[in-house]
UniProtKB/TrEMBL annotation:
Keywords: Bacterial flagellum, Cell membrane, Cell projection, Chemotaxis, Cilium, Flagellar rotation, Flagellum, Membrane. It is a peripheral membrane protein. Coiled coil: none annotated. It is found in: Bacterial flagellum basal body; Cell membrane. Its main location: other. Residues 253-323 form the Flagellar motor switch protein FliN-like C-terminal domain. CDD domains: FliM. Belongs to the FliM family. This is Flagellar motor switch protein FliM.
C-alpha cells in the first residue's frame, strides 16, 4: 500500500522544491532508474502464494484432526495449530531442526518420493510418557530409543498419518505408509540439498509440554498435484464434493427416520348412541371378512396388503402385495 503523506509533510516538500533544496528533475530520474533486486538461486520460490494458502488450509484441517486424535489417545489437554508454512532448501530445513529428533519418513502413494514428519523430542517424549501411564513430561535431549519406545511411537504416528490421508482427500486420495522412524537428520537424505521443500510447522501443546511438529514436503514430490492447489480448483472441487456429501448425509438421515406402521384388521361404522352403550365383552362387527387381506399403512398412507398370522409366537403380518400409487 503506498504511503500517504500528512498535510505537514506535503507543505515541507513544496517548500523544499520552491527554495531549491530539492530538484524535481532528480526525483524523476531516481524513479526511472531500474531497481536491482537480489535473487538467490539456491533459495528458489517454487510454490506460489495461492498454492501456499491451499496447503495452509489443508494443514489447518489436519491440525484439527490431530488434536482430536491425540486428545483421545493421550487423555490430556492437546492443542495443535498451524504456526507457519514456508518454502526453503532442503539443506536449510535439516539445519533448522535439532541434531537428535524424531523423524517419521513416509510414502504417500500415488505421489513419488518421500515426505518427513519431524516431531520435537519434547513433544514426542511427552506423548510416550502419557502412553506408558506417566504425567506427560517431555525430555529435551535423546541419544537413542529402546525397542519398546520405537514400537510405541511407530504405532502412534502410523495412526496420526491416517488423518493425513483424510486431510488431503479433497485434493487427492493418498495411501500413506510409514517407511522408517529415524532420530538423526544426517542419515535422512530424501532429496538433494538444494531442492525446494514446503515446510509446515504445527505449534503443539500437550499438557505442560510445548514444541513443534514439522512436515517437510519436497516440491518434486508435490509437482504432479501442484495445479490442484490453486484457489479456483480448490473451490470448484469443494463444491463438487460437498453436493454428493450433502445428498448422502440427507439420505442417511431420511433412512433413520421412524415411521408408524399400522396393520388395519378392518373398520366399521356405528352411531353415537351405540358407541355410548358399549361395555366390556361387546363385539364390534367389521366390514371385512376373515379371509380378506389386511391393509398396511405407513405414515397413515396405505402402502401394502398383507396376510395375518403368527411368527415365533407373536402376532404378525406377511406382506403379499404392494399398493400402487393409482390404487392408493
Amino acid at each position: 500500500m503506498p504511503e500517504v503523506l500528512s498535510q505537514g509533510e506535503i507543505d515541507a516538500l513544496l517548500s523544499a522544491l520552491s527554495t531549491g533544496e530539492m530538484d524535481a528533475e532528480e526525483l524523476k530520474k531516481e524513479e526511472t532508474e531500474k531497481k536491482v533486486k537480489v535473487y538467490d538461486f539456491k533459495r528458489a520460490l517454487r510454490f506460489s502464494k495461492d498454492q501456499i494458502r491451499s496447503i495452509t488450509r489443508i494443514y489447518e484441517n489436519y491440525a484439527r484432526l490431530l488434536t482430536t486424535y491425540f486428545s483421545a489417545q493421550l487423555r490430556t489437554f492437546v492443542q495443535i495449530t498451524v504456526a507457519s508454512v514456508d518454502q526453503l532448501p532442503y539443506d536449510e530445513f535439516i539445519r533448522s531442526i535439532p541434531k537428535m529428533t524424531i523423524l517419521n519418513v513416509f510414502n504417500a502413494d500415488p505421489l513419488e518420493g518421500r515426505m518427513v514428519m519431524e516431531v520435537n523430542p519434547n513433544i514426542a517424549f511427552a506423548m510416550l510418557d502419557r502412553m506408558l501411564g506417566g504425567q506427560g513430561n517431555g525430555l529435551n535431549n535423546i541419544s537413542s530409543l529402546t525397542e519398546i519406545e520405537t514400537t510405541v511411537m511407530e504405532r502412534m504416528f502410523i495412526r496420526a498419518l491416517q488423518s493425513f490421508e483424510e486431510a488431503w482427500k479433497s485434493v487427492l486420495d493418498l495411501n500413506v505408509e510409514l517407511d522408517v522412524l529415524e532420530i538423526n537428520p544426517q542419515f535422512m537424505q530424501i532429496v538433494s540439498p538444494n531442492e525446494t521443500v514446503a515446510v509446515v510447522s504445527l505449534s503443539t501443546k500437550i499438557g505442560e509440554s510445548t514444541g513443534m511438529i514439522n512436515f517437510c514436503m519436497p516440491h518434486v514430490t508435490l509437482e504432479p498435484i501442484i495445479p490442484k492447489l490453486s484457489a479456483h480448483y480448490w473451490l470448484s472441487t469443494q463444491k463438487k464434493i460437498r453436493e454428493p456429501q450433502e445428498k448422502e448425509e440427507l439420505e442417511k438421515r431420511v433412512r433413520k427416520t421412524k415411521l408408524p406402521v399400522i396393520a388395519e384388521l378392518g373398520h366399521s361404522t356405528i352411531n353415537v348412541q351405540e358407541f355410548t352403550q358399549l361395555t366390556k365383552g361387546d363385539v364390534i362387527r367389521l366390514n371385512e371378512s376373515i379371509g380378506d387381506q389386511l391393509c398396511i399403512k405407513v405414515g397413515h398412507k396405505p402402502k401394502f396388503l398383507a396376510q395375518p398370522g403368527t411368527y415365533k409366537g407373536r402376532v404378525a403380518v406377511q406382506v403379499t402385495e404392494k399398493i400402487s400409487e393409482e390404487e392408493e
